[in-house]
Amino acid sequence: MRYDAYRDHVQKLDQAGDLVPDLPPSFVKLLGKSSILNMRASFHAGLTPQHRRIRSKVMRALAPAQVLQHRGGMQQVSRRLLEDLASASQSGSAPFEPIAKSFAMSISARLIVGEELSGEFLPEMESCFADILAGVLSPPVDLGRFSTFGRAMQARRKLLPLVG
Fold this sequence. Notes:
By secondary structure, the chain is mostly helical. The protein has helices at about 5-15, 25-30, 50-60, 65-70, 70-90, 95-115, 115-135, 150-164.
């Protein structure tokens, strides 16, 4: 997108507070109404109190000092996964995608449930996130375990106590 097109259209909508997310219904239902991705936001039009509160929590969690506190754990996970990659590549080559996915999931689990519990919950969290990702773009038909969206909703309910 050219900057002048952005300035003339998108930026004006954003400044007026009229730029709103237009996500598929299944995405909105899986994220929940309190997700920052589902909220209308504009610094010029003013943030809603709920958006301001959630945004503040996210910004505090991602502050450099907070992230640096987890540096040792991230290095430990990185070392372990690189060792796994090295041993897997002894036979010639090894795919990097599963290692990268495992890294992201391991770090997220450590941040969500704590370093001491992350290993215990990691397989369940990986399974739940896989179900949720499959359900995000599926038709929002909740038939429990018999539909992709239903399995995603069940996975969301499993994860809520860990995240909340």
